[in-house]
């Protein structure tokens, strides 16, 4: 009996030692897993929330982003192409330009040229809410410049009449001088005036007119 008791006690001690060794071996892995989890959590906490200040910042010396374009407002800079008409009777008659789409704009100009019936392109501030509009007009256009394009469907050139010795030329807005031929006598007397010439420049004009006298 005493021998059996000693054997049992020895087995118990052996099992206890084995269990202790096993637990000691596993402990570092558990600590490492715990440390890894802590590190991952710290990394996530550090990266969040996302900082967008760098993306929105304007570098030193760089231009600031342009403000969004306005989509509202009564007046916008625009161009209109169409035939000029005079409506009403003097002294309250008005000039308007009617585009190919049928939309008409009343023209506001200081000392408008005699260009009724001409096809023109006009630039200026378009206003769709002006109280001066005619019932048939959709807008007003405060004209800042214009170019004659055609007369009764015939292409026209708009420029200042220049004399080059015994020859003549039209100086267009881009500064180019375009030689003319068969200049009518009445037009030769208008050197320095702004005129339009309908038709080819290498032959007599199909139509012509003075838009502004010589200064």
**How many helices in DSSP terms?**
3
Kindly report how far apart the N and C termini lie: 142 Å
CATH architecture of the domain at 75-151: Beta Barrel
- Gross morphology is elongated
Find the CATH topology of the domain at 75-151: OB fold (Dihydrolipoamide Acetyltransferase, E2P)
Radius of gyration: 45 Å
> Biggest sheet: strands, sense, closure?
5 strands, mixed, barrel
Q: Walk across the major sheet and give the strand order.
A: 1-2-3-5-4
The CATH superfamily of the domain at 75-151 appears as Nucleic acid-binding proteins
Mean pLDDT: 75
Low-confidence segments, ≥5 residues, pLDDT <50?
Answer: 1-5, 19-74
Helix/strand order, N-terminal first: HHEEEEEEEEHEE
Query: How much helicity do the residues have?
Result: 25-40%
Helix and strand content put the structural class at alpha+beta
Total strands: the figure is 10
Question: Would you mind describing this structure in some detail?
Answer:
With 215 residues, this protein is of the alpha+beta class. Among the domains are: 75-151, OB fold (Dihydrolipoamide Acetyltransferase, E2P); 154-212. It has helices at 2-47, 53-56, 185-188; strands at residues 75-87, 94-98, 104-108, 118-127, 139-151, 154-164, 167-171, 177-180, 194-198, 207-212. It has a 5-stranded mixed beta barrel. β6 (154-164) and β7 (167-171) form a beta hairpin. The chain is elongated and about 50 Å long.
């Amino acid at each position: 009996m005493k021998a059996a008791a000693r054997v049992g006690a020895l087995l118990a001690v052996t099992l206890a030692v084995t269990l202790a060794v096993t637990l000691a071996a596993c402990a570092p892995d558990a600590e490492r897993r715990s440390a890894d989890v802590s590190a991952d959590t710290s990394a996530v906490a550090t990266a969040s929330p996302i900082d967008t200040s760098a993306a929105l910042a304007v570098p030193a010396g760089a231009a600031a982003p342009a403000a969004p374009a306005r989509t509202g407002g009564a007046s916008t800079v625009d161009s209109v192409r169409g035939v000029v008409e005079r409506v009403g009777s003097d002294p309250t008659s008005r000039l308007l330009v009617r585009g190919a789409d049928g939309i008409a704009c009343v023209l506001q100009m200081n000392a408008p040229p005699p260009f009724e019936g001409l096809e023109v392109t006009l630039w200026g501030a378009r206003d769709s809410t002006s109280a001066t509009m005619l019932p048939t007009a959709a807008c007003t256009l405060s004209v800042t410049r214009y170019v004659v394009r055609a007369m009764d469907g015939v292409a026209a050139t708009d420029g200042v009449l220049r004399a080059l010795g015994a020859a003549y030329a039209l100086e267009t807005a881009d500064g180019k001088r375009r030689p003319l031929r068969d200049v009518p006598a009445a037009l030769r007397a208008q050197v320095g005036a702004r005129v339009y010439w309908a038709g080819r420049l290498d032959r007599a004009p199909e139509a012509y007119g003075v838009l502004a006298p010589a200064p």
